[in-house]
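Justification of computing resources. Each target in the renewal requires a structure prediction run like the one illustrated here; the chain below, 642 residues long, is used simply to show the kind of job we budget for.
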Amino acid sequence: MTFTASAAANQLPGGSLADLSLEELSNIQVVSASKRAQALSDAAASLFVITADDIRRSGATSLPEALRLAPNLTVAQISNTGWSVSARGFNSTANKLLVLIDGRSVYTPLFAGVFWDIQDVMLEDVERIEVISGPGGTLWGVNAVNGVINVITRSSKDTQGTLLSASGGNRGIDVGARHGSAINDEATYRVYARHFTRDRSHLANGSDVDDAWQMDEAGFRSDWQGAADRLMMEGQVQQGDHGQPAPGSISINGVPFTLGDIRTRTAHALARWVRRLPDDGELSVQGYVDHSERVVPPTFAEKLDIADLQWQYALPRSGAQAWVVGGEYRVSWDRLDNSSYFGFLPADLSQTWASLFAQDEVALRPDLNLTLGARLESNDYTGVEWLPNIRLAWKPQTEHLLWTALSRTVRAPSRLDRDPYVPWPSTVPWPASLGPRPTYALGGGPEAPSEVAHVLELGYRGQPTAQTSLSMTVYRALYDGLHTQEVRQSAMTYYVFEGNMKGAVDGIEVWGSYQPLPTWRLMAGFSGLYQRLALKPGSTDQTRLAAARGQDPAQTWLLRSYWDLPGNTELNMAVRHVSMLQTPDVPAYLALDVRYAWRMRPGMEWALTGRNVLGSGHGEYTAMATRAEIGPAWAVQLVTQF
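Resulting structure tokens:
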């Protein structure tokens, strides 16, 4: 078996992109950089594509595990259910990265981040994951500050027949089933169901971590293709239960509490209509509704509903210009059950976001393109935000692209920035010299501003030879308004949230591929960053400053090897290195993953996967006393399609 053989022969998940040459991979159509379909080789952004074949060969069983394949992301596992995923720093908050699944934004307005324990799809259905590191505010809106992750699933037309998947090992079990069929000559559908369990992880001293997990989910997708129109509808329901990791037993205001299991319930439905127009034009309308419930005893319980409507018009090309315009209207209804010692005020809150954007790509010469764009987006906390960008792309030769970009982007405040309150404990003495006892120990963040970034990027993407590909980006990002907690000794509050941190981040991202043999491909990537953060005059929040400075690795690198062997077998390996974290102290680590697979017959694959096979394990995040040890794991998987 070689990388140039017919990918359709075995009809296994991921086969559609399994055997492309490097030149063909550079021409994969992507949409995240310009909201128009374009070849990856033309994308003027730090964009990495995780293909379906990459996911299959990695043996990943969850989206965060699959995201480890992107060299322009930092992915740290906290526990079975907890992950910190970020780009270009600020891993301590992980709230500057916009994540989309089939066009549906999955960041929560509770803290502007992602609950990774409820973001799941059947990975066999993923066509590709487009990962942009760097600002994407003009096209994708507020919160696309340091990057955009765009998960794109396969059309139901490409998932016909029945697929069964089962795996088991020392971490737990994972079983899934999918069936796809034709409705008529123009319409198809698929339905799927999945169940998995995860056993408890352990601390370095061997003690159990309370993070055992089980989840059930089911979903569907239907696609209709007409002469000029496409319609896609999809939906999913999901329920899960998992433990809360240490510290476990806690004491609040002198009252002991034991953290209970977290319960999650989610459901969503999405529809998208697209009409093709002459001269590369396109009109699309998308809408979705999203419901989620999260019970976190004894802290809070939340019910969140979101309705979102988007439209986009890619105008037919006119001479040297190609316009894209669009808008979005989003509403959320958040209902929280607060505890007696912590809460969000108001407990029930409805928020709206509205935006309009326009971007024009101008061909200054056949080899030189200028892109100008801007978005106006309003939110209930800070009003209207201005998100412009300018990009210049030069292709001196077909195989080489040089580009530069200057952008302004914003993370708007979330409920966690503005609305959290902690009553002042009546059992704690308050000196009379300080005036009346405050009502709250933490009094929200009524003046917490948007976090703003100005980013300059310079990049290259190309194929130096037929056997090699290379992408490199250097950047400087200037931040202001970063989240801090400030002391306010008054009759009303003791602490409040503000935005009194600023600074700069310089970095480099490099990745590439080399194919020494038709049956062997090597891929490598490196990311390095240098942070200079400081508090503004009057701020005393040394804790958050230390966390912001110390929870990002200065360097990460990875090396992957795909090797196709005789007898329809393959050996895939991946080595990852992450440098140390300073606050708290997390040592540098090296991890090796290995997967051996055998295609017993067309449509059937057996695989043995080993993760973290070097040594006894390593920690990736949080303090030593509560840090889950990510130890060796193995699993046997069987996937069959008929």
